[in-house]
Amino acid sequence: MTNFKSLVSGVGSLNKTKKYYNDWSKNYDKTLKIWNYQAPKKSSQFLKKLNKVRANNILDLACGTGLFGLELKKLYPKSIIYGSDISKESLKIAHTKNIYYDLKVNNFEQFNYQKIKFDLISLIGSMTYCKNVDKLFININKNIKEKGFFIFTHRVDLWEKQDFSNILKKFNNSLKIIKISRPINYLPLNKDFNNKIKIRMVLLQKY
Ligand SMILES: C[S@@+](CC[C@H](N)C(=O)[O-])C[C@H]1O[C@@H](n2cnc3c(N)ncnc32)[C@H](O)[C@@H]1O
C-alpha cells in the first residue's frame, strides 16, 4: 500500500523511490486527478505564455506516466518527445499513451543521449527527488543544444531549505534564468499539501 503521507517528506533512497512509483503506477493518474495536480498544465501554460521555446527534440525527465508529456504534445504537436524515468511500471503506462518516440529507464542525474542534443528538457514534479543538483545541472547543460531550454518545477519549502536561488545563481553563467514564476498551487486537494506547499516553475536557457 502506498503511503501518500511520505510524499511531503520525500520517499528516501533511489530504490525506495523506484518501488514507490512502481507500486503506485496503476493508480497514479487517478489519484493525481483527485488531488487536482496542477504542475503539468500550469507548466505548459507557462511555456506558452513566455513564447520563447521552439522545440523539435524534447526530453521529458522523470516523465512518469506521461502527464506532462501529454501537455507537451498539445503545445508542440510536431516535436519528437523522449521520456525517461526510474519507474519501469510508470513507463509502461506512458507507453500506452502514444506520446513518446522513445522511453528509457534512467536516473535523471545520470542520463546521456550521446547522439542527440535537445531543444527542451523538462523535469516536472520531480526536483524533490534530486540528490545532487550540481550533477543534474551539469548533465542538463551537456544534453541541451546551445540556446536550448530547461524547464522544471520545485517546491517552495524545499527551495528555501536548499537556498535554491543561490544554486541557480551559481549556474547562471551556463544556464541563464529566463523566468521564475510566483508560487502556485501544487496538489490543492491533497490534505498534506493543499495551500501549504506550493511550487515555482522555472525556465532556464543555455548560453
Ligand atoms: C511526482 S512524479 C512526476 C511524474 C511526471 N513528471 C508528472 O508530472 O506526472 C515523480 C517521478 O519522478 C520519478 N523519479 C524519482 N526519482 C528519479 C530519478 N532519480 N531519476 C528518474 N526518475 C525519478 C518517479 O519515478 C516519478 O515518476
Summarize the structure.
With 207 residues, this protein is of the alpha/beta class. It has eight helices and eight strands, in the order H-H-H-E-H-E-H-E-E-H-E-H-H-E-E-E. Helix 2 (14-34) packs parallel to helix 5 (88-96).
Q: How would you explain this protein's 3D organization?
A:
The chain is an alpha/beta fold and 207 residues long. The protein has one domain (6-107, 115-206): Rossmann fold, CATH 3.40.50. 39% of the residues lie in helices and 24% in strands. It contains eight helices and eight strands; from the N terminus they run H-H-H-E-H-E-H-E-E-H-E-H-H-E-E-E. It has helices spanning 6-9, 14-34, 39-50, 67-75, 88-96, 133-143, 156-162, 164-170, and strands at 57-61, 80-85, 102-105, 118-123, 144-155, 175-180, 184-185, 198-206. Strands 1, 2, 3, 4, 5, 6, 7 and 8 form an eight-stranded mixed β-sheet that branches. Strand 1 (57-61), helix 4 and strand 2 form a beta-alpha-beta unit. It is globular. The protein starts with 5 loop residues before the first helix and ends with a strand. The mean pLDDT is 94. The protein binds S-adenosylmethionine (SAM). The site of S-adenosylmethionine has 21 residues, from helix 2, helix 3 and helix 4.
